[in-house]
Design brief:
The protein has six helices and four strands. The protein is α+β, with helices and mostly antiparallel strands. The chain has two domains: 86 residues; 94 residues, Alpha-Beta Plaits, CATH 3.30.70.120. The chain has a four-stranded antiparallel beta sheet, covered by helices on one side. Helix 1 runs parallel beside helix 3 and helix 4 packs across helix 5. The radius of gyration is 24 Å and the shape is elongated. About 3% of the residues have low confidence.
Length: 188
């Protein structure tokens, strides 16, 4: 009995790769849509569906065995992961960082301002007394820098981070200022 290598290895590999690309694009498309980046979603949707139709036609026409079905499911799982990793690398959008601090709030706000980030400080009352609430909205790609500033001053700061659907105005650092502020912090 001769083994049909295309059915056992070639076709499943094609299906797997195509499904990773298809689902990866779909994941990115959904994330872009939810973040208000709707100009790319239709294009990604077209490519995603085109690949999906091509895969389904191959499976229904030639794939009759477990390897093709397994490759289809595995490609779906890996495609989700790849799509999320790509979106993380792109770091599109803005986030709001909220801090609640019993002390050190003014220092953090000053350090954020020195680094070119906007920050708003509000007095508040917590369960154990007076607190400072600090809000800053930053580009997602700057989140690592912002949390590094906060942790350097107050390593046990309570933080919450949420996606921002849209924002207007505000203080967002220019690229040169952001990089020089980051370089200055690293020198200390």
């Amino acid at each position: 009995m001769e083994i049909n290598w295309f059915e056992w290895l070639g076709l499943p590999l094609i299906i797997f790769v195509a499904r990773v690309v298809d689902v990866g694009l779909g994941t990115i498309r959904i994330i872009f849509t939810s973040r208000g980046k709707r100009h790319l979603a239709p294009l990604l949707g077209f490519v995603e569906v085109f690949i999906w139709v091509a895969i389904i036609s191959q499976i229904t026409r030639t794939a009759t065995g477990f390897p093709a079905y397994f490759a289809y499911a595995a490609g779906f799982a890996v495609g989700n992961y790849v799509g999320m990793k790509i979106e993380d690398a792109l770091a599109i959008g803005k986030v709001v960082v909220r801090m609640i601090l019993s002390d050190g709030g003014e220092q953090i706000a000053h350090a954020l301002h020195q680094s070119g980030f906007g920050a708003t400080v509000v007095d508040g009352q917590g369960a154990n007394g007076q607190v400072k609430l600090i809000y800053t909205i930053v580009n997602r790609r700057d989140l690592v820098d912002v949390t590094a500033i906060i942790n350097q001053i107050h390593p046990r700061a309570f933080l919450s981070v949420e996606e921002v659907r849209s924002s207007q105005q505000g203080i967002f650092p220019k690229e040169a200022a952001r990089f020089s502020a980051t370089a200055q912090r690293k020198k200390k």
